[in-house]
Fold each of these.
Amino acid sequence: MNAIPRFNSNRNAIGWFAMTAVIALLGWVETVQPMGVDFADLTNGIVTMDTMVRVAILTIVLVGLNLLMGYAGQVSLGHAALYGLGAYASSILCVRSGDLLGVPAWVLGSWWWPWLVMLIGMAFAGALAYLVGRPILRLQGHYLAMATLGLGIMIYILFRENLGFQGQHITGTFDGIPGVPRLRIGNFEIWPISRYYFFAWIAALGAIAFGLNVISSRTGRALRAIHDSEVAAQAMGVDVASYKVRIFAVSAILASAAGSIYAHFQTTVSPAPFSFVGSLELVVMAAVGGLSSIWGAPFGVAVILIIKEILRSRLRVVFSGASGEHEVIFYGILLVLIMIFMPEGVTVGAVRRWRLWQSRKREQVLSPAQPQAGVPR
Amino acid sequence: MTGKQDSPVLLSIKDVSKVFGGLMALNRVSFDVHSGEIVALIGPNGAGKTTLFNVITNFHPLDGGEILFGGKPLNGLRPDQIAQGGIVRTFQNLRIFHNMTVLENAMVGMHLQGASGIVSAALRLPAAREEEKRFHDIAYQYLEMVGIENRAHDLASSLPFGQQRLLEIGRALAANPRLLLLDEPAAGLTRAETEALDELICSLQDQGLTILLVEHDMELVMNIADRVVVLHYGTKIATGTPEEVQANPDVIGAYLGADWQQDKWLEWMLEDSNPNAEKADA
């Protein structure tokens, strides 16, 4: 049995090496500033440390979304709202829970409270996704897309409408909730931004490791089987509905964790990033990175965020009067182009074509010119 | 052959009916499959053979009657629960997992023999890793059994048609079924491939597996089946050994109209069911 060849076992090792090397290098440039060059100088101020932290945070969301969309084949159009749940859980429970719930001041001031809140947010998002997903995912087809669209808009409106009772406000208006504390471990504050950069990327790499472990497991194979043929997966004993619900809940938990990390990064949480446009942006990122590629996640996020920064800083030069809203047009065009030419996503499309070509080549070597006369397809 | 019919009944189809719109796809069909038997289900196109498979595995709910497996009714179970009970099927129009490797396809077949979930997999707990290794090794053995282990790490979609059929069977075997349902396993195979399939199915029977198959290739059916059940427009018109069924005037009538000679009928069927025969001979 030892002779069984294992395929591509070092492909992930290469990914890990490349990824950590790039992250460490960029972090080193920022902290040490060799020859007086800091990170932002590398790209003439367009891509900053701030952008890189956002890439890390959204990578966590994207890993979950990839597991759901790329591997289980279910589209979520409300993932930004699940991401927002984490951000709002962190901001509300860290800033307002003293007045709202009577949490004592020594707890609010302690270093572990924000971390506990993060876990509470994850549990809440996971439970919500599970409860919403259970009835929907029993149905076949794209019901989840519609339901998550509705769920996302509902949650967004709750964020925006300054929800409150007995004179206390919970969510805040468009202005959001200011004053979210920085994260600390004991007395070690995870700030300035170079520290937060490393923290966010450790979390992102953790999410990538999580995703990679899941897809190469029994669960991951079941999900991929569902994506390829629900009927055949069922015939092999895979409880299709249960797996879809579970992976939806897992992706919500990841999104919520990312939201909490975002809240402690921004220190002010406002509803804008968690709207439908935010969800659409996540779907575009997933499509660019590859719908069934965990490694594609950081790639997709980085490409979109960097393009966005360039558009933001240069679009006004070309089209005077262009505002942030014009991004939506760009996303639309990009998504249409990707879906026409590479429906599996840009990176996966390229890799898969290459692998198929390799397999075909091997087949010709193994069975040269086998007669296949009269085989109906 | 005679001994097998004394063995206990494994699958019992009782008065099973299925209606699509106004069409009676299955009309009070009844027959038993005994443990260790190979039973072939034949009949002209549209006779309801695949529908019966879909009803047994509960992809379509029953409209009447009852199906017992090992004495227990299957009504109301989900398809995955049917698989859990030990009935595993293949599909007439192949449904392999195209985006997975050949080995991974077989490992999905082993799904029910594992217990690891998302958490244990994500944390790479020892139990999950142990299970993964076990899955890997055993799935490879099933690929060896159907003879496609040299393609284990290729994408399933890159296999030629005949090997994709074998993969479907290998994947079903990996689920370790008590009853294997094969839906036209020889369709589209060359004569050489069909002969290999013949041997494979017989060796599975020797290992104690019970098999119910739908097949158009009469030569294969006559070679391997212990008993044959003939469906015609959703109704069972005959059952018996291959020899008995061949001689049954109702069967001949169903296929050809009443006044054909038996030997001519067999000749016609053999010719018709094996379109590759001439090419392989030439």
Note: The CA atoms of residues 201 and 233 of chain B lie 28 Å apart.
Amino acid sequence: MTEEKDKNGFITISIPTQLAEKIRKRMEGTTFNSLSSYVTYVMSEVLSEIDEDTQEVFTKEDEERIKQRLRSLGYLD
Amino acid sequence: MKLDVNINYIVSGLERSGTSMIMQILCAVHVPVAFDDLRLPDENNPKGYFELEGGKIINKLMNGTFPLQKYQGQFIKITAYGLLYLPKGKYKIIYIERNLEEILDSMQKMSPVIDLDSKKIEESFMKLNKKIKHEIQERPDIEVLFVNFNEIVLSPKNHIERICGFIPLPQSYSKKMVNAIDPRLYRQRRKLGNYFQEK
């Protein structure tokens, strides 16, 4: 991936032409008027979902904290 | 009053969320409930804990030695974490939720251990609650009714009617069940509208 910054706070990234064509087809019938705005929207949604999932995962650390608390309350040996 | 002997009936929720109150409500109309006296009433639960194994049923569920079959046709209390270890069966679960800050306040009052990182503990319990709710709703062998402690104490009638419909019990029982709720035991109060439940 190549990146070029511009003075308006945007960067340019390169994606394969074939992928760009697939994305253009996906855009048909939407209100997005450029490939950039569509890709920006999709990527924001994907990243936000990943962030949400990461926060929600019940980890081993969470489980250990719960167990410690349950032990202190007499619910677990 | 008899329940279906092919079903395990469970009252659940995070610890200190009002599970004992639901057991009291059921006892008021002689619904079969099973508990022992290994953990006696105390200042944290003046009307009793309504638990089996002195509250340590989770240990037996974890190692697969709890005799669930023996308790078919009766309500037993299994707090939320224990539900992760429920084997395949046929269950009806009343799952009670309560404002999480109130739960943690109540746990803190009961526990001799001081929270060093209460924010992390809060997050962990929130995640556990979500995980359990998701899992019990996904399992085909479980029917679940969600009730909210804060709402049931403040405005019990509709919630009691929902419980009667779920078990099922005659709606004529609802008055006695409502009377079994003792609002004086709602002691760890936080502001209303701060529920963490999501359905």
Note: The longest strand of chain A covers residues 3-5.
